[in-house]
């Protein structure tokens, strides 16, 4: 549906995007993530036609977009700040794109009702005005309006960032529901990594105008290309290590980890490290467990509890170990297994280690 090849974007002499190539399949949900200023919105605007590209090519739905203005593209963009018409009702707002396209009234009515249903908005809202709705409901109406004419591509620029946590959760569920039922390709900019993991088929991680990694959520989470991606997506421990090839596998040495047999398989080593780059061992907090007295594991870490946070479903521990701090998440329990100042031993399976470029 979208094929971007070698896209560069300059604002004056400032290079905002460098050699961006990506494809989005028909009906795919792609999340764009990355630190502030890395070029996510710029890329979205180029797809939408609100910005020209400086080099490269863009094909959407089989057609070269170079000369096609935003209004004639098969894309719709939803901005962070929604712009509903304040003096139009919910029904008029949602139906507006079809009204503009001079579609017959019964068709508009049917499409509006279908969108209302898909976004789980009550029928009684149809005659309300935007100011009579909550922020979350307004955002749903804005989404419904952008989808009513069934554009092949929906571009979402942080549409949920202004909402509180609970509303966000319910709107995320609506968005996924909507995506599943309309067959549109979604490109969704978000700085909420959990949201990207939950919603997207693939995640594109950007940094300083370039794509660092593009892959399925589990790939990005468990097999990050480098320490930047590992640290950007979710909490993580990155322990400096030396990694050297040993036959088909790799041997590692790391001051913090105590392992009887410090060997990991080739697929536990990112390509950059295999080629000789400096390494860090990535350990996700949920991969660690608290060892009971006398209990053993492939690898262990000895330390002292600095701090803990009871989060309900899980407890997060911050543990001082060999001049670093280790983060560990364990399932929540009503009795606290260790408290501040306690000496602890953590266990880890060798198979859970992954070496990234430091
Ligand atoms: P955020 O997460 O903060 O929204 P972003 O990843 O969406 O950031 P962009 O808005 O795409 O980032 O901006 C990328 C870079 O290009 C930034 O350094 C920004 O200052 C710059 N930039 C964006 N628009 C313009 C413009 N119209 N003129 C000049 N520079 C711009």
From TrEMBL:
Species of provenance: Thioclava sediminum
Xref: Gene3D superfamilies: 2.40.50.100, P-loop containing nucleotide triphosphate hydrolases (3.40.50.300)
Entry annotated with the keyword Lipid metabolism: no
InterPro entries xref list: AAA+_ATPase, ABC_SmlMolc_Importer, ABC_transporter-like_ATP-bd, ABC_transporter-like_CS, Mo/tungstate-bd_C_term_dom, P-loop_NTPase, Transp-assoc_OB_typ2
Keyword Secreted annotated: no
Keywords: ATP-binding, Nucleotide-binding, Transport
Domain of life: Bacteria
SMART domains membership: AAA (SM00382)
PANTHER family assigned to the protein according to its UniProt record, in alphabetical order: SPERMIDINE/PUTRESCINE IMPORT ATP-BINDING PROTEIN POTA (PTHR42781), SPERMIDINE_PUTRESCINE IMPORT ATP-BINDING PROTEIN POTA (PTHR42781:SF4)
Protein known as: ABC transporter domain-containing protein
Pfam families: ABC_tran, TOBE_2
Domain ABC transporter stretches: 2-233
């Amino acid at each position: 549906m979208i094929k971007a090849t070698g896209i560069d974007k300059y604002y004056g002499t400032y290079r905002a995007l460098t050699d961006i190539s990506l494809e989005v399949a028909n009906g795919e949900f792609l999340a764009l993530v990355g630190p502030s200023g890395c070029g996510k919105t710029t890329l979205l605007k180029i797809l939408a036609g609100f910005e020209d590209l400086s080099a490269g090519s863009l094909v959407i739905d089989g057609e070269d977009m170079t000369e096609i203005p935003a209004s004639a593209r098969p894309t719709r963009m939803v901005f962070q700040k929604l712009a509903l018409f304040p003096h139009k009702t919910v029904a008029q707002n949602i139906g507006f794109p079809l009204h503009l396209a001079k579609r017959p009234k019964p068709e508009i009515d049917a499409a509006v009702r279908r969108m209302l249903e898909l976004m789980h908005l009550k029928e009684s809202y149809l005659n309300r005005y935007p100011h009579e709705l909550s922020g979350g409901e307004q955002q749903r109406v804005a989404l419904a309006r952008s989808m009513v004419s069934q554009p092949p591509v929906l571009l979402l620029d942080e549409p949920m960032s202004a909402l509180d946590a609970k509303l966000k959760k319910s709107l995320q569920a609506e968005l996924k529901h909507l995506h599943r039922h309309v067959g549109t390709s979604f490109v969704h900019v978000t700085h909420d990594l959990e949201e990207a993991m939950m919603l997207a088929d693939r995640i594109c991680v950007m940094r300083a105008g370039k794509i660092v990694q593009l892959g399925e959520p589990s790939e990005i989470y468990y097999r990050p290309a480098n320490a930047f991606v590992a640290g950007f997506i979710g909490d993580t421990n990155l322990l400096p290590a030396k990694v050297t090839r040993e036959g088909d596998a790799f041997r590692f040495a790391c001051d913090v980890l105590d392992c009887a047999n410090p060997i990991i398989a080739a697929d536990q080593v990112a390509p950059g490290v295999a080629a000789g780059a400096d390494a860090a061992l990535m350990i996700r907090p949920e991969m660690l467990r608290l060892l009971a007295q006398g209990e053993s594991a492939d690898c262990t870490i000895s330390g002292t509890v600095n701090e803990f946070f009871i989060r309900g479903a899980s407890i997060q521990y911050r543990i001082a170990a060999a001049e670093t701090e280790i983060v560990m998440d364990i399932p929540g329990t009503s009795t606290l297994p260790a408290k501040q100042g306690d000496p602890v031993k953590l266990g880890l399976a060798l198979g859970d280690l992954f070496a990234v470029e430091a």
